[in-house]
Structures are given as structure tokens and as C-alpha cells.
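Subject: for your reference before the review

Hello V.,

The reviewers asked for a structural picture of the protein, and I figured it would be easier to keep everything in one thread rather than splitting it across files. Below is the amino acid sequence we used in the manuscript, unchanged from the supplementary table.
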Amino acid sequence: MTILVPYHQDERLPDGDIPLTAETVEPALPDGDTWTRLVALADAVADRVAARIGETPVVVSGDCLVANATITGAQRAGLDPSVVWFDAHGDVHTLETSTSGYLGGMALRLAMGAHAERFATPLGLRPLTERQAVLVDARDLDPAEVRYLSTSDLRRHPVTALSAELLPEGPLVLHVDVDVIDADEQPGMRFPAPNGPAQRDVLDAARRVLTTGRVVAVDIACPWRPARDEQERDRRARLLGDLLALTG
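And here is what came back from the structure prediction:
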């Protein structure tokens, strides 16, 4: 079961930006600040995910924030999942450490309870412990993220080294930000990061997570800029097809 969430943060993406035909979540977002709108979007997605747990729902969206909705949906279905987070970036900033203020750079930290009064609490997300998160790759880190990770219990592993033995016990949510793939192989990302793993290595690592049989939901983030041409659009469609094929 594939669920399309055509948003980057609280902004509706143009039709076709994510080249995928699927069940779409597109709630009427309330007036208010960005946090209020993000909670409303995540709440709608979490309900849809909760109703599909048992079918390994795959949520595809325009940024990493929606992963929190996927985790919340698994929780609403009565599970206590950990998360395996593939990303070129750490996504462990807070409002205090971020120099850009980009909320997507806080996505994993929000899952662990940062700024709970703005996001986790109104959404009903039970924050994960640091030991319930595995960060895969994260080659592009800001100094504040390096400092946080140096003392955190959050585990970090290269794509090619990831194995079942390195994963938390119990149910898992697999999150894949497609910018984890080397920027030369998948160009057009909002925040490109060079010197990354090959697409085949990312797919192989994701397959190793899925073959544990413990993945209850998959979240795919596509934080790319509008495709420049049909060739780039086709490349993205093939990537999504390859990722979806892993889930059966």
C-alpha cells in the first residue's frame, strides 16, 4: 500500500513533482503558523498509516518531516517502533542550533522529542529514545550536529556497513531520504551532498533492513527541485520504482 503526501513542509507541491500514482493524503490545512499546519498534515497522514499497519504502508512525500507522521501512525496502531533513518544529512538540529531555520533539518530530532510543545505533543507522537534511532550515512553534518552526535546514544553507520545486527530490536520504520544517494547519480536535490553511496548500495542496504521482517512501515522523502527535463523525471520515477519494489 503506497500513500502519496505531495507536500514539502506545509507547501503543496505541483502535480507530478513526485512521479507516482498512489492513494493521496491532501487535507485542508488550517490557517495559522507553519507548526500548526505541519501538525494538521501529520495527523492526517498518521491516521492513514495507522489504518494500513499490517500491510507495510509506504509513505512517499517531499520532505523528511512526514516521517514523524509515519512513526506516529505506527504508534497509533499500538506499536512502539524504532526508526532506521537513511539521509545525507543528520536532521538533528533544533531551533537553537540551526543557522538556516530549515525545519526539515530538525526532522529526526523532532521524532526524539525536540520542541515537543510545538509538534510531538499536539500530534500525539511519543518521542523515541536515542537508542531507538539509527542514522545511516549522514555525511553532511553541521558543527552543532557533530557535537550532538558525539555525546548522543543515537547510533550512526555507513550505508555499506549496515546489517541486521546493528538495528534496534522490535518493530522498525524505515525512512529513506533519496538525497542519501550520491548527488551525481541523483541530481536536482534541494540540498545536494557529494561523495555519497551509489544508488545500488542504498537499495541493497534498505533491502537488508526489510529482510529482517520487522519493518512495519516505510517512509520515502523526495526533497528535490522541479525536474529540469523528462530525463530527470524518468530517473526519479525509476528510483521510486526500485524502492517500492523492495517492499514487495
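For the response letter, the relevant points are probably these. The chain has a mean pLDDT of 97. The first helix runs from residue 34 to 52.

Happy to draft the paragraph if you're swamped.

O.
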